[in-house]
Design brief:
By secondary structure, the chain is mostly helical. It has 4 helices and no strands. Helix 2 (9-26) packs antiparallel against helix 4 (39-48). The chain is globular and about 40 Å long.
């Protein structure tokens, strides 16, 4: 399935969007405030959110937070605002 996801960006996005509820319910300790939301609310968030796929070394500013499926987060230093 990973090979198919890498070949088809739309399919990959759909897999991640549809797995949000499962990920939150499966590991609520890592989900933060999302763990307290209903399945309906999580589906609404998932369907109305913006999906970004970044390559290694790419940066993004998330003013209102985000949900990380794979990878790690580092605080930016020496950023010119």
């Amino acid at each position: 399935m990973l090979a198919m996801m890498k070949k088809n960006n739309k399919f990959e996005e759909k897999v991640y969007r549809n797995s949000l509820v499962y990920n939150v319910k499966h590991n609520p300790g890592a989900a933060g405030v999302l763990a307290s939301l209903s399945e309906l609310s999580l589906n609404e968030i998932s369907s109305s959110s913006i999906y970004y796929k970044l390559d290694k070394g790419e940066n993004i500013t998330l003013e209102y937070g985000g949900y990380l499926f794979v990878g790690s987060i580092q605080t930016a230093t020496n950023v010119n605002a």
